[in-house]
Amino acid sequence: MLKKLMAKFGVGAAKxxxxxxxxxxxxGETMTGVVRIEGGNVEQxxxxxxxxxxxxxxxxxxxxxxxxQAFPVRSNFTVQPKPYSTEIPFxxxxxxxxxxxxxxxxxxxxxxxxxxxxxxxxxxxTIQVLPPERVERVLRALxxxxxxxxxxxxxxxxxxxxxxxxxxxxxxxxxxxLEVIFFSAPxxxxxxxxxxxxxxxxxREKDYRAEIIVPESLxxxxxxxxxxxxxxxxxxxxxxxxxxxxxxxxAQYQTGQYGHHRGSGMGGMIGGMAAxxxxxxxxxxxxxxxxxxxxxxxxEEEGMDMDTxxxxxxxxxxx
Length: 319
Known about the structure:
alpha+beta, Immunoglobulin-like, 7 helices
């Protein structure tokens, strides 16, 4: 009787341990591994066993934790007393649209045994969310150009995950900083970029926004050097002739062509844009929070331009 009572408070209770086959997975890949359960001092009835993918991000200098998705493993079974142990295999598909892991964005799996009428044993395991291969190829291509990521690169913005670069060595033109947001649509990868250029004899900095459409042929294996050359040539063209940057309407990302419009105002825009953007999956929740702030309040607070011009209100504006 004493053992049963103690187990209810977690002393001598069953233990749970999730073990991933790999420390990291790409978006859309299947996470695999086993959940190991070891019996405690007494028999215990388990109502449910599941793992929840959690995201921890730093938003406006504060740590915010969100549940991404729950993965059921098994329900309604009994764990016998020790030395009983068992391993239950699992296969969870990593959702699309998440931001990749960076110092400011982290993920972990929270595994929980729901024990009837007792304290629930839990387990926490970090997991690296890796970028899609096409995005990784572009990041490597920029690295080969000695464009180095800033310490806060990979932060979340109202338009997805933004990566910030600065030239490690002179490129031969006036680029001070480059920010990139990735947008993926069927058959193409777009880079929505902001170029920070030093202009005039006073070298005053001015921002320009542009779109780079990366040909699919350059995103295949063996095209690394060609991809780097294409990016360098395009960035150089924009930097040396910023007034010639083609006009791009943000409306194409807001509605029909690349996303699904969900209502009006900023809330609808973000909902529609999130579908194709790296890091877009939880933007609504992270932007508006549980208090469901209005689109108007948020746009005023962030100082964002809600016109359909190609203007992010500054990639540096974090959520």
